Amino acid sequence: MLKRIRCDIRGIVQGVGFRPFIHRLARRFELSGWVRNSSGGVILEAQGKEGDLHLFVTAIRAEAPPLAVITGLSREEIPAGDGDDFTIFASKGGGGGPEISPDWDVCSDCLRELFDPADRRFHYPFITCTNCGPRYSIITGTPYDRHLTTMAPFVMCPLCRGEYDDPADRRFHAQPNGCPVCGPILTLTDATGKVVVGNPLTEAIRLLAAGEILAVKGTGGYHLAVDAANDGAVRELRRRKLRDEKPFALMAPELEEVRKFATPDFPEERLITSPERPIVLVRQRDEHNLSPAVAPANGYFGVMLPSTPLQHLLLRGNFPALVMTSGNLSDEPMAYRDKDARQRLNATADFFLIHDRSIQTRLDDSVVRLFQGNPLFLRRSRGYAPRALPLFAGQRSVLAVGGELKGSVCLTRGDRAFLSQHIGDLKNPETLASLEQTAEHLKKILEIKPELVAHDLHPDYLSTRWARESSGLPTVGIQHHHAHLASCMGENGLEGEVMGIIFDGAGFGPDGTIWGGEFLVGGYENFRRWGHIRQVHLPGGDAAVREPFRMALSWLRATFGPAAFDLPFPFIASLSPEEKKLFDRMIQRGINSPLTSSCGRLLDGVAALLGVRSAVSYEGQAAIELEGIAEGGKERPPLPFLIARDANDSLILDFTPAIRELTEAFLVGDDRASLARAFHNTVARGAVDLCVAIRQDTGLQRVVLSGGVFQNRLLAEGVHDLLAARNFNVFTHRLVPPNDGGLALGQAIIAGRSSSCA
Ligand code: ZN
Ligand code: ZN
Ligand code: FE
Fold first, then answer.
1. Would you identify the CATH topology of the domain 191-355?
2. Which of 96, 231, 486, 726 is most buried, judging by how many CB atoms fall within 10 Å of its CB?
């Protein structure tokens, strides 16, 4: 007695070899029927013996192709039909809309062929199959089909075509399929564009070994590469990249090599070797043979393994590691179009290793660190975007445009949220154009028509202005820290009311001050600011972000009064009497010095106090270096702090007592590393005590931690462990960054659930 079932499969099941996989399974269990893509996933009908059908469905989940992510599989019995074949049908629309796979590492089958001299793709830098390779970066439209990718101009040779058409082949409908005869090819040129004679790969390896700087075209853009063991070359790259003090990312040939210069633990190793191939922050070894200029003033290396065949080939050139930093100058977005890369990088790179397949979507490398065994994203981009994030409930379709720093956009469709790749800091028209482009492209390939646009409350953010003036849709403004709260709630599937510790750099507060050390109570619908870090002035506004010594002055002024300007700190001694008077007046009267409760700026100020750094080249640098120093510090008792209620009945967490004791201890010569550590512990204790007070007020047990300061592992760990010890339920970010890179997700959920809009 034959039975027939119909299955509807959702998730990332297109462009990942899913239909041929179903076809192979159907043959194994001797089933007839068909499979086809729908716009929401894959639909199939299968007919056979009841037991076989059962095994077949079980195997769909158990043996799904490596790139597939099944989020839903429904089956129903239908009347049996005719036919003994199992057919793969062409795509057909309908349903909830497509999902797009991120770009992935080379699979082990392709890797084996890449290094097999007998294989026709031996050393071919663009080898790929349905289980691996570029996806999001090359897709120009949907359905995912070769003519809607940047592979469109390449006409397959008969051998490749044969693979592509054969359902039993690993390359059946592998859209980027190609070979040295018909696919993309590599070219090596000098900075003027003149082609270097010889095998591009061999020559590139020779040049790198000789200490030259190469621009290398990758999956989502250009990298600048040098031999990481060549100190002169690394320093020269740093000099040419202008004012850039950020650590350079490293690419090592394999895990074995990583262990020689860093000390990854098991979860870090698992993340490094995952097919998403992110940059993972791992502790440096005390002794290693890489250039100290790779990551100056930093105890970590950002390490990744090769993720394209070209990178695998380059790294076989016997380098312990290559510096692989974004192809840009200081804060610009990474170059990804060939002409633009040539123009912008020709003064930085000596040579260009390029190819003739264009990149549709710029994708920076993702950056992750481990937090209690889970990934903590600093940047979510290549390998992850635009994978769907599940939402607890279906909601209205929204486009959220994020904040200003670490921009990204988020689109929702039903109970799915699609957070874009990292776009960059929205400080110029180019990044804004990139935001607009990303939103348009994602709308197209994910087939989403948003009903409204969510944006930050800050009226001057370029993203806010774009939403209000150019999006052409109804808009809704979402408070910055409310969005952080919702982002963390959303990825953890929380409903109802929670409290949130939102520690970050800066966000627009509805009261006209700058928020950033917030204790919120609420949910998606609304929130209340239950408490915050004591406010101080931000002397000179944005200048205080670039010059943390201004924050030190402000905290000292709040702690010691006018006597602050007589304290024997070098950054105070270097001020003239006029400057001191000016700063005092600015701080006293709030002239060009808005009030802020920012936790990030508090840590900046303490970094400057302890002589870590009085000016920075990127936001948060001083606080990051302070954390590095604190990690090496000995434990000492925490510093004092106060909790009080202000006239509005808000709880105020006051760190001036801590600043007083820290100052006195530092000025009598106490070890600054242990002081830095003690300050981290103090902030954690203060935050947790404040949560205890909120629990007394509200009865709430659940706490979410969000905001850029929670990239700080020492602080995050302190807050997390102390909260857990007091029986709170603590929720942190694991899927999206705690920083503003995850803001759009929170905005999208709040807006999608609300009914009112402007
Ligand atoms: Zn493969
Ligand atoms: Zn071919
Ligand atoms: Fe923020």
1. DHBP synthase (3.90.870)
2. 486
pTM assigned to the model:
0.91
Query: What are the φ/ψ torsions at residue 147 (nearest 5 degrees)?
Result: -70, -15
Domain 3-88 has CATH 3.30.930.10: no
Distance 540 CA to ligand 2 centre (A): 61
Going from the Cα of 395 to the center of ligand 3, the distance in angstroms, rounded, reads: 24
Quick one: which of 488, 282, 268 has its CA closest to 372?
Answer: 268
3-state secondary structure of 88: strand
From ligand 3's centre to the CA of 550, what distance in Å? 21
pLDDT of residue 618: 81
Q: pLDDT confidence of 179, banded at 50, 70, 90?
A: very high
CA–centroid distance, residue 622 to ligand 2 (Å): 52
Determine how β-strand 300-304 pairs with β-strand 249-251.
parallel
What is the chain's mean pLDDT, rounded?
Answer: 93
Q: What tokens does 577 get?
A: 């009497």
Q: Measure 114 CA to ligand 1 centroid, in angstroms.
A: 10
Give CATH 3.90.870.30 domain extents, the chain.
100-184
pLDDT band for position 20 (cuts 50, 70, 90):
confident
pLDDT digits over 595-645, tens only? 999 999 999 999 999 999 888 988 888 988 999 999 989 999 999 999 999
Closest ligand (CA of 111): 1
What's the 701 CA to ligand 2 centre distance in angstroms? 60
The CATH-assigned architecture of domain 384-490+740-757 is: 2-Layer Sandwich (3.30)
Determine the CATH number of domain 100-184: 3.90.870.30
Domain with CATH 3.90.870.40 in the chain: 191-355
Which amino acid does the sequence have at 230? N
- Ligand 3 mean position, distance from CA 500 (Å): 13
Q: Which CATH architecture has domain 514-521+530-731?
A: 2-Layer Sandwich (3.30)
**pLDDT tens profile 58-116:** 999 999 887 788 888 999 999 998 888 898 886 654 446 788 889 989 999 999 999 99
Number of CB atoms found within 10 A of residue 255's CB: 13
> Residue 235: pLDDT above 70?
yes
Sign of CA dihedral 445, 446, 449, 450: negative
Distance (angstroms) between ligand 1 centre and the Cα of 705 equals: 39
R_g of the chain, CA atoms, integer Å: 27
pLDDT at res. 92: 52
Q: pLDDT category, 39, cuts 50, 70, 90?
A: low
CA of residue 67 relative to chain centroid, distance: 19
Span from the CA of 105 to the centroid of ligand 1 (angstroms): 8
- Measure the CA–CA gap between 208 and 195, rounded to whole angstroms: 17
SS3 751: helix
The answer, yes or no, to whether residue 332 has pLDDT greater than 50, is: yes
Q: Which ligand is nearest to the CA of 163?
A: 2
